[in-house]
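Exercise 7. Given the components listed, write out the predicted structure of the assembled complex. Treat all entries as one system.
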Amino acid sequence: MLDFIPPIDILLQLLINGVLFGTMYGIAAIGLSLIFGTMRIVFIAQGTMIILAAYGSFWLFNLWSVNPYVSILIVVPASLIVGSGLYQVLFRKVAREGQFPTLLIAFGLMALLENLMSVVFSADARAIQTSYAAYALTFMGLKISFTRLMAFVMAVAGTVGVAFFLKKTLLGKAVRAASENLEYAMLVGITPHMVNTLTFAIGIGLAGLAGVATATAYAFDPFSGFVFSLKAMIALALGGMGNVVGALLGGLLLGVIEAFGAFFLSGGWADVISYAVFLLVLMFKPEGLFASGTSAKP
Amino acid sequence: MKTMGQNSKSKRRLALTVVVVALLTAVPGVLDPETSYVVFLLFSAFIYVALAQAWNLVSGYTGQVSLGNHAFFGLGAYVIAIGWSRGLIGYLDPLGMLLAGCAAAILGILVGIPLLSKLRGDYFALGTLGLGEILRLVTIQGRALTAGPTGIFLPSSSFTTIVPYYFMALFLALLATGVTYYMVKSNTGLALVATRDDEAAAAAIGINILKFKVLAFAVGAFLAGLCGALQAYYVFHVEPQGFFSLSWTIYPVLMCVLGGVGTLTGPVVGAVFLTAAFEVAKYYLPEIHPIFSGLLIILVIMFLPNGLVRLRRGRIVRNPKAA
Amino acid sequence: MANPLLNVVDLNVFHGEAQALWDISFQIQAGEVFAIIGSNGAGKSTILKTLAGLLRPSAGRVEFLGSRIDGRSAARIVDLGLALVPEGRGLFSGLTVAENLELGAFTKRARPLMKQTMEEMAATFQIIRIRSDQLAGKMSGGEQQMLAIAKALMSKPRLLMLDEPSLGLAPLVVKTVFEIIATLKQQGVTILLVEQNIHQALRIADHACVIKTGRITLVGTGKELLSDPEIHKAYMGSLR
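Answer.
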């Protein structure tokens, strides 16, 4: 199987596919990273929130013919509100109790949403069928799907937006400060609830963006979220916790690994490889491949 | 005075345990095991008690949140399925089950040493989570050995009665509880519990943390492997999706939290209570019971984060450092 | 005597189930330097953490500017004007010098004045002028201590609490730190200083108390305690 080296254009095509799909992991990983950074919550329901947002975009298109790219204007603000609501209702009281409880709530939320969606929306796989869904750009003999390219653009825009917020605004700096040392942050007047509400809103807001991107470019069903979360965690481990750009790069790397793995082996083994890489990175470079020494660099 | 008080308390507890076990032993004799739902309910509760106790030993007492119980559970089940379908071991074969447990324990040691020596709590949780996923994917890809995604069908004609399952599960529950009790009461265990929140202090007073953690992790894996083995004998169809389901980790964790993490009776109380609750939900809300389970998890954590056992004692000690 | 700026009455604090402070009472007047001295683990930091709102007292009260602040949140307390430079300096090492200072002025009261205060700090502390884009974690111990004090001053405090500002610093740097404390005192900043460097602390303090296993054992002016034979025997002999 491995005794031939495919032509360079196939390798490039694999690289592009991997990068385009990897951005989905990356943007999910950024949300996880923010939530983990400030609250030490492993928010395993992140992928399911992405799927929920994908359904939002899907139904807006199917019921009211809202263009999926316009639906960003509805889905992302709604996700921000849902995110802060999730924190206030589910995590505010429990956040101080430590890890088992928050992890379990996130799992409970995932189970609840997955099954709720499969009852309400049915368990069928969905994808938004626009007139341009199958359109592909051709560039130097390489095919680039328009919707996937747009998904990539959205992910990069989201990353840049979050990085800008963290780096340039006082609230963003407060979030970084709180994820570095909560007690010190409290001493300058930052309240944990404010930072937590903010990071949850942004984290779920990014899930909203990723959801729209998913709905336009890929097929999904109510139970796709869990694997999404796991992949986001792998991306996070590759990129380093609490590192926004690193998380995106981790996602891209994972996407590329999977694309090549699926080509050279079979689809199932590609996943095994990504988990193996995950374990190896956790064991030998737990600070991530793109970490730069400091913990809260954007 | 104080030691005498504790002594009589532990004697009373022992007596209570003996009475409860005696009653449980009598159940299949009193109720008709062929028709009674209670026997089945207790059988599943016992498996969950053992799984919850296995997690409790690793995470409740040593403070390492493991999310890989389902990996060991599934591995145990596959050892039985592969061995039995090839005639290497028999039906309800104790040696086969021991083999399943040992396979899980060996995997636990192999994975535990690098993970536990390198990783802090959060990363350990993620690493163990990945382990279950790897095993699930490997069994899907395992072709002839694991029969891929359809899984291995076992000769279900061997089934005659639930009674041996009932006693095996009861034995597993007692074994898991006893082992946990024994390990926690050992010198290392006591010291580790005393310094659970402060690794530096534990290391400073000369505890070989890694050795104990790996041991606890391996024993937890062994117990989970045994549970998976018994479940394989009961279901007669071992497939990746069901046996490497994260539920086999999360439900026991939930049971521990509901009952009280880091207590000996907590997981028992939690497992019995939740098994009953889930079964009732399955019976009355067959369509939406997974939704109910998710909701129940959230409600339990929000309103009973310290567990029933501690609630009864009325002493809730929170970590004052946490914000 | 005028109303004290800070009035601590019968403070009792627990760490989990162990009592860390017993009936701590003292007063600080506006404009003075008050020192709390004692050996490691005596409970000095616990007092500061309780005053700053990080720990809750089980009994007793803390009055600041005449109103009770015990049980209030840390954020509210720093907004009222009680700033703490904690043990370990409280800097965000992954953030730059300028970012640390900006966050120092995070409170509602200090935020509108941020620019102006920043300029004042740049005038007082040289390092801030030349190193504003450097990561706080990459600076030397002495520089970090200066930055930590400047960061606390950004909140426009009415009372500045310093937890062992000389810890881990070279003698020459310690001297600079105490010079800065003296300058701040001259500028009229009220300071609560916790120190193991007893000699230096008592020389600069108007009033001081000695704390031993969670209880106040001696109170007096800095001079009185400096010449107290008990203190000489217990602390100074071993130190220098």
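Discussion: The first strand of chain C starts at residue 6 and ends at 15. Chain C has a mean pLDDT of 87.
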